[in-house]
Amino acid sequence: MGYDAEERDEAGAAFCRNPEGRGFSGGLLCREARQWDLPLASPRFAHPIPKSLRRNRAGPVRPVFDIACDCEDGAPVGEERAHARAMAALIAGNDNAFGRVGARIHDVTHHAWRSELDILVRGAGARLAFLTLPKAESVVDVERFLHAVREEALRAGVHRTIPVSVMMETPGAVHDAWAIAALPGVASLDFGTLDFVSAHHGAVPAAAMQSPGQFDHPLVRRAKCEVAAAALAHAVVPAHGVTLALEDPDIVYADAMRARNEFGFLRMWSIHPAQIEPIVRAFRPDAVEVETSAAVLAAAQAADWAPIRHDGKLYDRASYRYCWDVLQQAHAAGAAIPAAASTFFTPTEPAH
After folding, report:
1. Torsion-angle region of residue 299: left (phi > 0), alpha (psi -120 to 50) or beta?
2. What is the set of domains in the chain, with CATH numbers?
């Protein structure tokens, strides 16, 4: 569910240049291309998308959230094809100003999944930001879905890889998390708390569907750790599931902070427009850490990437890589980039 290769690598490529255009010695931070430079929230809607979200931007810099058109829970029974056509028209239309709208279809055991896929790819394949597969039971289900996406794209004359997000909401999917994350074409692993709890047929209490149980119940906690670890190890984005609090931004913020800081999730689903701002705020790196990272990297560049001392602390190449990740996350979140690091990115707004 990412930008195309040129956009996704923009920040990394820019960091491999200094202000004079000379390459950094050894290409220190020019690592394997990552898919982590993605919007931080992914709200899910049936139809229509609220007007308040069509701008898809929380500031003047860049989009900071995706929108997922929901064919799985949004389509009335028997009207799946009509619903998919409406979603395809929306995704291909002018309201999709930033190209960050995708779709979730039915799982591969549902009678309508293949027709939904055909309609979406034929009608909006050039603009689909992602396709989401729910309720995968194993890596075999995901392989089947990826093959179908490629097949439909070829039939429709779509000459691009459509990123796929996999909902990790069954015990079988969690068991196969590492194999799923390794599949080409998978862009994110999205943990679905509600379905994961339901899949245990009462063995996990309903209290584990919301906080604090969704973070503290041992089986749910273990599953989240496994999904996040598998995703991060394969440069795939780990995305946390929804929080049920619709009208309390403090709870949404607290849930997002726990997902990020305790489990390593890099983005989060939402189910209401009011949840987007606290999620983006929670996943945005701390301003002090961003300032420190910018200062450290500027000093490290001046020292030709030798170890340095900054504010009484030692920083070396492992530290530099961490600092670069902080700046990338801040940039993806639309945060102000300090002047010391402004040359690391293609200019999109005046440095602060």
Report:
1. alpha
2. 5-32+286-344 (no CATH), 41-283 (3.20.20.60)
